[in-house]
Amino acid sequence: MSRRAAGGGQIYLDHHSTTPVDPRVLDEMMPHFAGSFGNASSADHRYGHAAAEAVESARERVAAAVGARPEEIIFTSGATESDNMALAGTMARYRDRGDHMVTCATEHEAVLGTARHLEGSGVKATYLPVDGEGELDLGELESAIRDTTVVASVMAANNEIGTMHDVGEIGRITGERGVVFHTDAAQAAGHIPLDVRGMGIGLMSMSAHKMYGPKGVGALYVRGAKPRVRPEPLFRGGGQERGMRSGTLNVPGIAGFGKAAEIAVRGMAAEGERLRSLAARMLRPLEDAGGVLNGHPTRRLPHNLSVYFEGIEGKAIINSVADRVAISAGSACTASTVEPSHVITALGHGEGRAHSSIRIGLGRFNTAEEVDSASEIIAGAVGRLRRIGGG
Ligand SMILES: Cc1ncc(COP(=O)(O)O)c(C=O)c1O
Questions:
Q1: How far is the centre of ligand 1, averaged over its atoms, from the C-alpha of 79 (Å)?
Q2: What's the confidence (pLDDT) of residue 321?
């Protein structure tokens, strides 16, 4: 199935920004908008019971996708909210343990912005650097942990360059030191295997719209035992989600999220292989046009390509292919600014590389033909821009 028509003939290759809703997910959601529209908290009638059942079934599916127990899944409005709750809520809850947190320079703004905000109220934050491929030195992580460290937040996979962190090892290190490990898995969940228990994860952020579910819904995994983690809520009110996230539940969104998680996990191995080979197929012509891959050559998300074209503005490439291919310069939330990507800058190759990179995110509905035409179109644009002097 092709998604070309949706963008007026554009081939959509921006799946790190968002993914289309899978038709099977849409089918799962539809009944909850009209006929079965109940409030999941209404215990007095069948409308409420049906909504609550849909939510609990989705909770089971999301939990199963990441090796959690259903009661450890708290539904939120997305990974931004989950990240905020994980950091602010955990620092607030365990203030008696200390005032320090550790995170990484290449995190999403939802984590970095929250860390900076917390610094304003007395929290001390360490931002660990990464190497030229976006990898963290785990020895540095270990040395950054102090007696007063409460939480360490390191993303499972990066949204711009695709580099995956060794989440299991980080879970082991933080676990030994009694530090809560939060991982932002917005880009990883549904794409690479995650097992919260095996990986020693205490808190994990997820987002439905990055895995062919709807926008505006996500989850925070909150470990229930050994040891239990209990962040303070961001929202207070009706006490939904066992008091951790008040507010009427987004039943259609949650039902869609559950279906999206189930589909993603069922097909993960085969789809990962397909996308890995499509990405390799796409990269070759881009390398022939002078492109250099950003991020780690192998420890990367199967569907990600971040490519640097020396001397050419990434924005110029994006604009010049825009009538046929949808790609981006980096994170969607910061893409409208002219600031260079903090992620590519953190790799230490200079700001120029950040200005001269494009991000490609392949997805479930992309075909080999689309990949071939897109790489030809992008390589052609690069050649033209080089001839006219760098765009
Ligand atoms: C790594 C990462 N974290 C958090 C977010 C924010 O997710 P949401 O759109 O669900 O708030 C994104 C989305 O771009 C992301 O890529």
A1: 5
A2: 98
What pLDDT score was predicted for residue 339?
78
Which parts of the chain fold into alpha helices (H)? 23-29, 46-66, 79-84, 90-93, 109-119, 138-144, 167-176, 251-266, 268-288, 314-321, 342-346, 351-355, 368-387
Domains 5-22+268-387 and 23-265 share a fold: no
Residues with CB under 6 A from ligand 1: 78-80, 83, 108, 110, 155, 159, 184, 186-187, 207, 218, 331-332
Superfamily of domain 5-22+268-387 in CATH is Aspartate Aminotransferase, domain 1 (3.90.1150.10)
The residue nearest atom 12 of ligand 1, judged by CA position, is: 186
Q: For the chain, which residues make up each domain, given as ranges?
A: 5-22+268-387, 23-265
What are 287-292's contacts with CB under 8 Å, separation 24+?
Answer: 288/379, 289/378, 289/379, 289/382, 289/383, 290/382, 290/386, 291/382
Report pLDDT for 7: 63
CA of 188 to the centre of ligand 1 (A): 11
Catalytic residue among 64, 144, 333, 335: 333
CATH class label, 23-265: alpha beta
Q: Is the pLDDT of residue 222 over 60?
A: yes
Question: Looking at per-residue confidence, does 374 or 330 come out higher?
Answer: 374
Whole-number Å distance, alpha carbon 2 to ligand 1 midpoint, is: 25
Does the annotation count 104 as an active-site position?
no
Ligand 1 atom nearest to CA at 78: 10
> 289 C-alpha to center of ligand 1: Å?
31
Asked if 153 and 141 touch (Cβ cutoff 8 Å), the reply is: no
What does the pLDDT average to over 53-75? Answer: 98
- Both tokens assigned to 108: 């999403």
Among the listed residues 323, 312, 343, the one whose alpha carbon sits nearest the alpha carbon of residue 16: 343
Q: Which atom of ligand 1 is nearest to the CA of 332?
A: 14
Atom of ligand 1 at shortest range from CA of 331 = 14
Report the 10 Å Cβ neighbour count for 84: 21
On whether the CB atoms of residues 385 and 317 are closer than 8 A, the answer is yes
Nearest CA to ligand 1 atom 14: 17
